[in-house]
Amino acid sequence: METGVIQKRLKILDDLVHEITKLKASLEDALMDDPNYGKMVEEEEETKKIKKEKKDRIMSTATIKGYQEEIKEKMEELKDTREILSQELVDYYKENGTLEIIDADGNVKRMKFSVKLVS
Fold first, then answer.
1. 3-class SS at 110?
2. Which of 47, 55, 57, 73 is the residue whose CA sits 20 to 30 A from 114?
3. For residues 94 and 115, what is the distance between their CA atoms, to the nearest angstrom?
């Protein structure tokens, strides 16, 4: 496949994202023009502010901080384990040529590959 086709598809994606952004801004402007909606948004912001203050007070306790640290560690472990599994599945596919694998419970799992471009 030629890079021209991919470049064309990337341009289409960029154009769509730009159009969606403009449409969302227009929608938000239309909503804010309604006086009842604007008042409701202001009330919601005040409620959020009060909620945040109360939550911050609670979150500053030692017990909560311990939970937060443990969650952070477990999330990092989860991320690392997923990355390792991903590489192991790629290796498994290369060696066996199959997109299916049986898990520890005997369930057949099907692999799904995903590719993203990063800048």
1. strand
2. 73
3. 16
Cα→Cα distances 53→40, 44, 47, 60, 67, Å: 20, 14, 10, 11, 19
Write down the residue that tokens 């800048």 correspond to. 119
C-beta separation of 31 from 37 below 8 A: yes
pLDDT, residue 117, reads 85
Alpha-carbon span 111 to 96, nearest angstrom = 13
pLDDT (tens digit per residue) in 45-87: 999 999 999 999 999 999 999 999 999 999 999 999 999 999 9
Collapsing DSSP to helix, strand or coil, 18 comes out as helix
Gap between the Cα atoms of 73 and 69, Å rounded: 6
